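MODEL INPUT / OUTPUT PAIR
PAIR INDEX: 1
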Amino acid sequence: MLTLIAIWAASPVAARADDARINRGNDPFLHVSSAVAGCVAPRGPFETEQEWLDEAHYRIERGNSCWIAGRCRLSNSYDYDKEIAESVTRRLNSLNASMQWREKTSLWLTIQRRFIYLDGCVARDFDKSGFVSALGETADVEKVIDRTTRRP
């Protein structure tokens, strides 16, 4: 029996299972608009098991640092992410009335440790800085990191 396990573990099937990119941290990943044609979806929070293991120490350290510093009410920054995902959805709905962002963007949001990573494509006439600033006003958001492009 041990021989079969050893053979399976060394097989390409086992290697592919470890290389599978999944959302191991259950970080919110939202596809919120699709107006810009040809915009490629980002990788988002999907990583291999090895990438997850390589980042584990840093993820724990980053998650706890704001609580240790007395800047967070929860003991881990990642504990805010599901609430932020709900709040940012409401915020986006209210922003659409004034900015029409859905008609001028193809966007994905990844929420990790109170940061919003904004990926995707925006139209040339879109007020990106205003949008990023308004998105940053969402409750409990510490920072918005803009990784969008004007060219798909």
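PAIR INDEX: 2
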Amino acid sequence: MGRIKVLIQPLGDVSEEAVLKLTEMLNVKLDLFEAYMSNRRLPLSEKAYNPLRRQYHSPHILKILCRVSENLDFDRILGVAEADLYVRGLNFIFGEAQLGGRCAIISLCRLKPEFYGERSDKKLFYLRMLKEAVHELGHTLGLNHCRNMKCVMYFSNSIWDTDMKDYRFCSQCREKIILN
């Protein structure tokens, strides 16, 4: 299986430094992906914004991202937003993806230690960002959540779940990717 070509797509007012770092980390830390940062920034749809929640409805943004990416020569598209995201039934999400599809999105908002009243820590922030990106890309590769708490495909109900898991797939999940 060759490397999966991924376009990292900045969405809205997201840090260019963070998007560049994510692109670099996906290329260096995982032999599965070949990541490229888009040279254009897409705006976040105001229709996706819920003023009562002060969050963006992720499925709406994901649909737009998929439409925009239809004619691009990439295997996967990963949108990266600073905005806080949600889906119906959950208070927030770190990201969302099309299971077995091409498109995924992550939010950096709740990955920053400062969100939890902690001191800024770029190393921790970047590691969290990498884990959530790989998790959502894993969903695009057809992977469901894994019961192994150390696997990147473990469901993160909180930031502490994200901190406990690795940025790599466990052997069972890796095997499922290879079989696809």
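PAIR 2 NOTE: The two ends are 9 Å apart (CA to CA).
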